[in-house]
Structures are given as C-alpha cells and as structure tokens.
Amino acid sequence: MFDIDLWREIFQSINMNRTRSLLSGFTVAFAILLFTILFGIANGLQNTFAEAFVDDANNSISIRSGRTTKAHKGLQAGRRIQFKNEDFNYIKEDFDDKVEFITARIYKNFQASFKGEQNTYNIRAVHPDHQFLEKTKIKEGRYINQNDLNNRTKSVVIGRLVGEDLFLKTRALGKYINLGGIQFKVIGVFTDDGGDNEERQIYMPVTTAQYLYGNNDYIDQINLTYNPEMDYDQALAFSTLLTKKLKNRFSVARSDQRAVRVRNMAEGTKAISQMTVGLTFIILVIGFGTLIAGIVGVSNIMIFIVKERTKEIGIRKALGASPRSIVSIILIESILITAIAGYFGLLLGVGVLELVGPSLKEYFIKDPGVSNGLVIGATLTLIIAGAIAGYLPAKKASRIKPIVALRND
Amino acid sequence: MLKIHQLHKSYAIGDSSLHVLKGIDLNVEEGEMVAIMGSSGSGKSTLLNIIGMLDEADSGEYILDELPIKNLTEKKAAVYRNKFLGFIFQSFNLINYKTALENVALPLYYQGLKRKERQEKAMFHLGKVGLADWAKHLPKELSGGQKQRVAIARALAANPKLLLADEPTGALDTKTSYDIMAFIQQLNDEGKTILMVTHEEDIANMCKRIVRLRDGVIMEDKKVNQVRAEQYV
Which residues in chain B are contacts of A5 at CB distance < 8 A? Predict the structure, then answer.
C-alpha cells in the first residue's frame, strides 16, 4: 500500500538531516564508484589479454632460423641456417598426422603505389594455409590458392588499410598495384582482428616471391598449427621432437639456441591462461573487498543513525507510534538513500570509465567496463546489507521503552 | 477515571534489585488536578511512567477509564497512549527538525487522520496556546516557554482523557513557569484531568490535590486550596 504520509515523513527526515543523509549516501556512492572502476579496469586488462590471442591461432608453432653459435660436427660457429622448400616439405610430410595447417613465410618490404598514392608495406609471401594460421578474414575476393602457387601468379591479397591508403574511396579488387616496380593484381582484401598493423600487410604466393626475387627456394620462416586434438603435453613433446629433428637435419648442436628456433604458442597460452585465472582472482578479491568495506560502512552508519534517533523514537512512541511504523520509517529511509547513492555511484563510475577508458589503452587496459548486471547486483547487495544493518538496531530501538529512550539526552 | 491498587515496581541493579514502588493505592476522579511530590528516588517519576504506559508495573492493578492496563503488547500500548494520554515533559521533547505545527500534528498522524484534518486540528491547538503565528518555526527558534506551550498543544491535539506532566516547569524560569501553570490550570478548568510530577512546593500548591511519596509509599494525600497562577503573571 502506498502511504503518502509515510513517504512525506521520510523525505522530511532525509531533507532535514542532510549531513547524516549525505554522509551515508557518500559512503555507498563511493563504494559503488570504486567497485565499478576497479572492476572495469580489471576487465580492461583481461580484454587486452584476450585480444592478444584472438589474432593468431593459439595452437601454432613458428620455426625460424639464425646463425649457429656453437661449432658442431666439424662445422664452425656463425654459420647461417637457411630454410628451403625441401625443409617445408619435410615437415609437412614427416609430421603429416600432427600438423593441421602449415605455411612458409618470406618477408619482403616494398614501396607500393597505385596512381598517385604510395606507401611502404610489409609483404608476406605465403602458402594458402596461412589464412587459417593468421585468422585472416576475407572481406572481398579470395585468398591465395594452390593455383596461384603452381602458376606463380602475380596476385596479392591486401589488408583493408592498404586498400584505404592507396585506393582511397575506390574499389581495390581487380586493380593492379605496383610493388617495387612490378604490377600485381589485387585478388582479395582482408581484415584482421590483430589491429592496424596486421591490416597493413600484403600477402602474395610464396612461389611468386621466390621466382621474382632471386629465383631461389629460400624460406624465411615456417608457421604451422598442430593437430588441435593434441593436449598440452603432447603439443610440447611434438615441438621438442621437431626441434631435435631440425637440429639434426642442419647439423646444429643440441644446445644451440639460435640456429633453429621453434616457438610453441602452447607454452605462452598456458602461462596466459594461468595469468588470466590469477587476474580473475585478483578482480574478485578487489571487488568483494570494496563491497565488504561498503557494507561495513553502511552498517556503521545505520547503527549510528539509530543511536542518534533514539530520542526521536522515544517521542514518537510516547505519541502513539507502533513499533512497526518506527522500523519502517528507519528502514525505508536507509534503503532510499542507499539506492539513490548507489545509482549515483554507478553512473559516476561508468562515466569515469567511459571518459578515461580510451586513454588507458597504452597501459594494456582495453575497453574497461562492467556489465550492468554486476554493478546492479553490487548495489543491491549494499542495499540489502544496509537494510539488514539498519533493521536490527531499528527493531531494537522500536522495542525499548519510550521512557528509556526519552531519558537518553 | 484512574484506579491504582497495590502497585509494585522494582528495578534490577546488578545482582540486587531496587524496590521503587511498594504498594501504591491511588484513585483519581475526572476533572482532578493532582501533584505528585517527593524527593528524588521517592518513586514519583516511576509512578507517572507506569500511569503513562511508558513503563510496566511488576504487580498490582491499574485501571484507566474502566480499562485494565495489563500485559499490553507494544502495539496496543501505542494505541492506548495515543488515544488516552497526553504527555508534557520537562525537556519538552519536540522533534527538532519538525516545525511547531508538524510537532503538534504528529499524534494525529499516528491516529491515522488525513493530512488536511491534521493540520487544521494542529493549527487550532496551536492557536489555543497562543502560538498560531509561530506555526512554521522550528523548535530551536522558540523560547523555552514557547517550546513547552507547543508541547502542551501537542499533548492536547489527540484530545486525551488524561494529561501527564513530568516536571513541566523544571526547565523554565519562575515567570515562565507561572505562565505555563496558568495555562494548565485553565485546561483543568475546562475539565481536563491532570497528573503532574513536581518537586516545587509553589507549583504543587497550584494543583487541587497533593500526593506525597517517600521511599515508594504514599506518605500523605490531601486536597489543597488551589493557588491561582494568574495572580503572579
């Protein structure tokens, strides 16, 4: 039942005891504000981690080569190891059941131009599997296919931003782009979640690059993903075996860390997932810590308020107030203040996150924010805690004999 | 109107208990104006509190207007207090964040009256104590005498059968005290039954009957010739 007089009493009490109301409101608002901001920042950190791993397949292994650092089998240190097509084929065939996707990579860097526009871009010459390894999304046209490889076609797939840079508002697909003096046909445009840098890449068939730039069969790097059915230990065993075989193949000492470098993302993935668990734990501790601090604050204030109002309660009782009306007037006031202050703190917190959020990106905090459900849940918790904290002393106060309350000067 | 028979009350103080009222017998008729006197610790305030249902007796009979007052629930006590009794306290006990008018209207709120009706009645009673112009003022803006008059208006607002006053002039200077007493006498002239606790002889002599308490028993209960307060004003 809506009792307008009761509400009038409550609003008068709030309004006439502003310090008290503001004080309790401030505690709640501040608790929710802190809760929102801390949770938001923690979520932002988590987003950054999550994003770092959407870019590439997380069961991937990359193999690079360098110079030997140790003499081995009569060969001197400082020898340069160069992967070739035969090495690529060796891995592909010998580990057929363990490899999901595999691609070679050759890195080039060219001045690219179309009509008046020009810019320098990184070029990656790859196999068709590269699309799945890098999680490249084709926006228009197609990716490099086996046919391109067989015929060494002069075709390229360009990143979305390359298209925007060079072709401005016009459509890039089907046009010819000049790469270091040679015309290439744009057969596809892609997007990538890995960020602007990834979208400024240009892909071409690996065979084309080998033919055009030196007419050799050199490869800079081999990337592969292992069979996703393998678990963490199997994946590690696989990369260990791969390292051993490749080192043998190139007569590299077992302890040589530079000549052949096999990097298994599974190791990183495990570390990251542990870190995420740790981060989640920290978030929970921070969140609940703030909340408990808020609850304690609200409880203290409620006990103080009831204490302060003991005399008023005595007067009201002497004038004929029922215990129930005493409890409800105190409780509703507390709930009202907590709810309004909580909402205020929530708005403030979300506002701060919106305002400061974008500039936090360089500190590894991306899109800091909290779900509405979470903050509303936190506010409700505070309201309920405030209600319980207020109910007990209010109930007690409503029971004390008015004469005792009145004596309390 | 008010019948009390063999009323006992003791308070626990640590392990021992203090027997404050040791069998009080008291009858008060309608229209009386009774002063309860006694030194501090004589049990006069305890008696008034029991009569006012602010406290409960351990044993004995208390009948108010044919109604036995015993084993009341909090809720029932609240209703009885509201309907039958008006309180005047030494320290006024006004709610400090409410205006004079709102203070007077408060018992009417607990009677469940409509807002408009409450305000009209409260205004009428404020007018009766001569404070109609002060209706919108907060207690802190009023003098002691004015505060007590607001408290009297509040006690009268619910039209109680019995008016209970606990040292109503205790916090006031002599002139203001007589002022207030003149007003209380006037209420009694109009037929209100009044019971008041005081330790001041001159105030007690302005009542019609004096009951003297000592160590929890009634020492003396006599009718007196009322001294009118107007002559001092």
Answer: 109, 115
pLDDT at B181 over 90: yes
DSSP summary character for residue B54: S
Is residue B210 scored above 90 in pLDDT?
A: yes
**Residue A2, pLDDT score:** 62
Instruction: Note whether B87 contacts A319, CB cutoff 8 Å.
Output: yes
> How is B112-167 classified by DSSP, letter by letter?
T--HHHHHHHHHHHHHHTT-GGGTT--GGGS-HHHHHHHHHHHHHHT--SEEEEES
pLDDT in tens, A105-160: 999 888 888 888 888 999 999 999 988 888 888 888 999 999 998 999 999 999 98
- What is residue A302's predicted lDDT score, i.e. its pLDDT? 79
Closest CA to A48 of A383, A391, A265, A365: A365
Domains contained in chain B, CATH given? 2-232 (3.40.50.300)
- ipTM of predicted assembly, 2 dp: 0.88
A339 forms beta bridges with: none
Distance, in angstroms, between A342 CA and closest chain B CA?
26
Rounded Cα distance, B154 and B122, in Å: 8
Residue with tokens 């308490």: B213
Alpha-carbon distance A310 to A305, whole Å? Answer: 9
Task: Kindly state whether B97 is in contact with chain A, defined as any CB-CB distance less than 8 angstroms.
Answer: yes
Which residues pair with residue A47 across a beta bridge?
none
Nearest residue of B to residue A14 by CA position? B97
**Per the CB < 8 Å rule, is B89 touching A406?**
yes
Which residues of A touch chain B, with CB atoms under 8 Å apart? 4-5, 8-9, 12-13, 16-17, 311-312, 314-325, 398-399, 401-403, 406, 409
Q: Which residues in chain B touch residue A319, judged by CB atoms under 8 angstroms apart?
A: 81-82, 87, 106-107, 110, 154, 158
Minimal C-alpha gap between A387 and chain B (Å):
23
Interface contact A16-B97, CB threshold 8 A:
yes
Region of A78 on the Ramachandran plot (φ > 0 left; ψ -120 to 50 alpha; else beta)? left
Tell me whether residues A316 and B110 touch, CB distance under 8 A.
yes
For chain A, report the end-to-end CA distance as a whole number of angstroms: 35
Count A/B contacts: CB-CB distance under 8 Å.
70
Interface probe with B: pick from A319, A326, A404, most Cβ of B within 10 Å: A319
Q: Which residue of B has its CA nearest to A4?
A: B115
pLDDT over 90, % of chain A: 11
Nearest alpha-carbon partner for B129 in B163, B161, B106, B152:
B152
Length of chain A: 409
Give the pTM: 0.65
A140 contacts: CB under 8 Å, gap ≥ 6? A171, A172, A173, A188, A189
Q: Which of B115, B21, B105, B93 is nearest to B62 (CA)?
A: B21
Tokens representing residue A360 in the block = 């936090």
Rounded to whole angstroms, the Cα distance separating B71 from B62 reads: 11
B88 CB contacts (<8 Å, ≥6 apart)? B148, B151, B152, B155, B163, B164, B165, B166, B168, B196
